[in-house]
Structures are given as structure tokens and as C-alpha cells.
Design goal:
The structure is a single chain. This protein has 404 residues and is of the alpha+beta class. It contains 11 helices and 9 strands. The strands form 2 sheets. Strands 1, 2, 3, 4, 5, 6 and 7 form a 7-stranded mixed β-sheet that branches. Strands 8-9 form a two-stranded antiparallel sheet. The longest helix has 36 residues.
Length: 404
């Protein structure tokens, strides 16, 4: 990986531009944002990359790195209560890309807490709830999780949610189950989504660690995002105070606002995943010799690498514009859905091409590609499958909802 460093204002250190950033999109970041990106990049290279393969192989999570990462100042950057400097959605997306570029599992681990959980509170919480929860989560003192998906409900959560919430005075009682909930086995707070038995509308609840009736069991034998500790959750008469109900969430439409913002993050994660695979593939093809020459010198290999770089560049352009629309207030569900569907599809092709140019050695962790190849499968699916996201876009195009 060759880095070139542009001139920076006095006192600021701007990171070098990634080779995969072929059109120089990083220049859109302010000097302060670029300096923050540099801190994140250094942390990922020095603290995460050396241990990522080992933790991935053992299916364990480096939870001890959460607080040191949070101390870099990029967690909670979207909220006035926790932002350490003025920043853009492009910057926040770029940070996610830098995480996934080194390890997509680590990106998910951080993103579940700083993205899904904090966005739920940031968008759906009262001012008092935001002040109570966002600062300690941004500091890394608390880790969050997000409980929406259920064993029998994934794509149809708008109507098919089975977990219930029943109010008794100032207390709510939650019953049901959740599946694939990242961080749930160790999270300090889990945002649980349930249907109010009184009005059949979706509500959000902050469930604290150790609450009686809450059980989280790690899902074993995963072959994608192995570092992420996904769990099955059982909610058996879990009592939550009215003060821990998200006061700004009254329906699935309110929840959809959270999902739209976090779907942006998945697009950036998919981008980082393909960049990581591409970088490893370029490095390998320059080192691997066959027929007396580095395989990087052969036409068919260069064709695959050029295709991969084209996918990355197109996806980066879409992610950047999507983030700009978020800042402008013009982004809609269909915009986020199209980006998630397009970028994850390009990711799937790119990680396959990257693995392919490494030949048989590409299936070993030592070559540096196969972890991205495997992790891409989960990223391709979560936050809405390609098919479901295309139906959201299709509804926008035609005015007809094909999934009703």
C-alpha cells in the first residue's frame, strides 16, 4: 500500500491517501476530519490488524479495544452531546470504511454500539435520555446492542414483529425473543424493539445489563464476521421503566429513520471490506511469482484488479453522495436502500476477484483475503437483503409496493 501525503495546515497531520481511493475522495474531508481519520487508521493498523486473524479464527471479540478506540473521538460524532469537533456524514462514513478496511468484524462490533444503539437513542430518545446515555457510550464506558431481528421475523419486521410490550402503570413488561443480536452477550444496554399490545405499534426500550428475565446466548458455528458475538435473546417478563422507553418512538416509521441512517453505515462497511480484500490481493500479486515473473504483470490478473478498483471507485462515489444528502436533509429511504444494495453487490464481486487472483493460497488467512471474502457474506445480507432493498427502490420508481 503506497500512501501519498498532501500538505496540511500547521499543527495537523493529514494521513496519506489510500491507493484504492483512485479519484481522491478523501480530499473532500476537512483537515480536522482527515487528522481524525489518520488517528483511526493508525489505531486499526497498530492495534487491530495484528490480532484480527487470530480473534477471527477463535471466534472471540477483542472487547478490551472498545474503550481505547472510543478515546480517539470518533464514536458519537453525529450527536451534539458527544461530537468533539464539527464533522460531516462523509467523515462518519469514512471512519466506518477505515474500520472495515482492516477488519469488517471490528467495524460491526463498533458500529452496533456507536451506530445502531446510539442512533436509536439519538434519534428516538428524549433530551434527558440522550444526555444520560450518549456521553458514556461515546466515551466507551458503556457498550450498546440493538435488538430488532427475531427468529421468525427479519425482512417483515414492520408487520411481523412478535416481541410484545405491555404497560402496567410506569412499568413495561417485555416478552419474546430476538436473534442475530451483535454484542448482546456483553452489552451494558440493549435497545429492544417490541409491539405495544395496546395499540399494536412498535416501541423502543433500553434494557440494562442484568435485568431479570433477559438471557443472551451466543450463536455458535458462524463462518462470517466470526469476531462479532451474535446472540439469541430471550425476554421472559422483562420489566422496563417508562423512563427507559424511547420517548420519540411511536411507530415503525420512527424506527425506519434509525434504519435509514445505519443502512448508510453498512454501505461504507461494504466499501471498506472490498478495499481490504483488494489491497491484500494487490500486495500478493506483486509478491507471487509464476513463470519467472510476478503474477501482477499478467493481463488476466490486471483485468481482475482493474475491475475491482472500478467497483470500489463507483461505490465510493455513491457512498459519498449519499452521505452528503444526509447532511443536506434530502436523503430518503430509497436512496439508502439503493446504495446498500449496489455497494454490497459490488463488494461480493470484488472480494471474489481478490480471492481468485491469489489462487489456492487465497483460502488461507495468511494471504489476507479470505477473511474479507467470508465476512462479505454477512454484510451482503444484514440491514436488508439486496432483494428487499431493491423493492424499496422499486416502490419509489413505480409507486407500487411489491412487498405488501
Amino acid at each position: 500500500m503506497t500512501l501519498t501525503t498532501p500538505a496540511a495546515p500547521a499543527g495537523l497531520t493529514v494521513p496519506g491517501v489510500l491507493d484504492a481511493d483512485f479519484y481522491g475522495f478523501q480530499d473532500l474531508l476537512t483537515p480536522v476530519e482527515q487528522e481524525a481519520v489518520g488517528r483511526v487508521r493508525d489505531f486499526m493498523e497498530s492495534q487491530v490488524r495484528p490480532l484480527a486473524d487470530d480473534y477471527w479464527e477463535r471466534a472471540e471479540c477483542p472487547v478490551h479495544l472498545f474503550k481505547p478506540f472510543a478515546e480517539l473521538g470518533s464514536v458519537g460524532a453525529a450527536w451534539p452531546e458527544t461530537a468533539q469537533f464539527e464533522n460531516s456524514a462523509v467523515f462518519r462514513g469514512w471512519v466506518g470504511m477505515e474500520l472495515a478496511r482492516v477488519d469488517s468484524s471490528f467495524c460491526t462490533f463498533i458500529g452496533v454500539s456507536s451506530g445502531l444503539a446510539m442512533s436509536s437513542i439519538g434519534l428516538g430518545g428524549s433530551p434527558e435520555q440522550r444526555e444520560q446515555w450518549l456521553p458514556p457510550m461515546a466515551r466507551g464506558d458503556l457498550i450498546g446492542a440493538f435488538g430488532l431481528t427475531e427468529p421468525l421475523s427479519g425482512s417483515d419486521t414492520a408487520r411481523g414483529l412478535r416481541t410484545t410490550a405491555t404497560r402496567h402503570g410506569d412499568t413495561w413488561v417485555l416478552n419474546g425473543s430476538k436473534r442475530w443480536i451483535g454484542n448482546a452477550t456483553f452489552a451494558d444496554v440493549v435497545v429492544v424493539w417490541a409491539k405495544d399490545t395496546a395499540d399494536d405499534q412498535v416501541k423502543g426500550f433500553i434494557v440494562r445489563k442484568g435485568t431479570p428475565g433477559f438471557t443472551a446466548t451466543k450463536i455458535e458455528r458462524k463462518q462470517s464476521l466470526r469476531i462479532v458475538q451474535n446472540a439469541d435473546i430471550t425476554l421472559d417478563g422483562v420489566e422496563v421503566a417508562e423512563s427507559d422507553r424511547l420517548q420519540g418512538i411511536d411507530s415503525f416509521k420512527d424506527l425506519a429513520n434509525v434504519l435509514r441512517v445505519t443502512r448508510d453505515g453498512v454501505s461504507w462497511q461494504a466499501l471498506g471490506t472490498m478495499i481490504g480484500a483488494y489491497e491484500a490481493a494487490v500486495r500478493y500479486t506483486k509478491e507471487r511469482e509464476q513463470f519467472g515473473n510476478p503474477i501482477a504483470s499478467y493481463q488476466l490478473v490486471q483485468d481482475k484488479l482493474a475491475t475491482a478498483l472500478g467497483n470500489i471507485t463507483a461505490s465510493l462515489g455513491m457512498c459519498v453522495r449519499l452521505a452528503q444528502m444526509q447532511d443536506e436533509g434530502t436523503q430518503r429511504d430509497q436512496h439508502a436502500a439503493l446504495a446498500k444494495a449496489f455497494v454490497t453487490t459490488r463488494m461480493r464481486e470484488t472480494v471474489a476477484l481478490s480471492r481468485e487472483v491469489c489462487g489456492g493460497n487465497g483460502i488461507t488467512l495468511d494471504t489476507g483475503v479470505v477473511r474479507y471474502f467470508a465476512d462479505a457474506e454477512a454484510v451482503y445480507t444484514f440491514e436488508g437483503t439486496r432483494d428487499m432493498n431493491h423493492l424499496i427502490v422499486g416502490r419509489s420508481i413505480t409507486g407500487h409496493a411489491a412487498f405488501v
